[in-house]
Specification:
By secondary structure, this protein is of the alpha+beta class. The protein contains five helices and two strands. The protein has a two-stranded antiparallel ribbon.
Length: 190
Amino acid sequence: PQATAALAASDLGLDAWPTRSWWTRYGDTQLNTIMADALAGNPSLDMAQARVRQAAALAGLTEAADKIQVSAAAKTSRQLFSAHAMTPKPMAGEWGWINEATVNLSYDLDFWNKNRSALQAAVGRLKATEVESYGVQLALTTNIMHHYIRLQQLYQQKDIALSSLKQRESTLALTQQRALAKIDSAVEIK
C-alpha cells in the first residue's frame, strides 16, 4: 500500500528512462560494437529476459482462465466380451471396439473478481520483470560506458605524458648543445 501510494505520487513517464541504445548518441562505432557484443552474450541479461518471457506466459495463462474453456478427447479400445456375463448374445465371447469421444465446454463465472485480480497481479509481475530486465541492461551498459570513458582518459593521459617526455627530451638536447657551445654550464644540464 505505501509503495503503491509512493509510485502513484511520483511523476514518472517513459521519458524518465534512457532509451534502449542510449550510447549511440555519441556516434562511436567502436563503442557500439562493444555494447552489441556485451548485450548479445550476457548471461545475466538472458536470465532477466527469460524471466520476462515466463511472466508473460503466466499472464497469458491467467488471462485464459477468464475465457470459455473448450476441451475434447477421444479414446478407442478393443475388448473381449465375456461369454458368461451379462453381455447380449451377438457380442458375447467376441472381440469388439469401444469408441468414446467427449467434448467439454466450461466458463468460470467470476462473481468476486478473482480472475480479474489474478490477471492484474500477473500483469504487475510482468511489468516488474520488464523493469528488472531493463535495469540489468542499463547497469551493464553504464558499467561498460564508465570503463570505456576511463580507458579513453588513460589513453589521453598517456599521450600527454609522451608529449611532455618528448618536450623534456628536446629541452635536454638543446641544453646539452648549449653546454657544448659554452653558452650554458653543466648546472643547467643537471
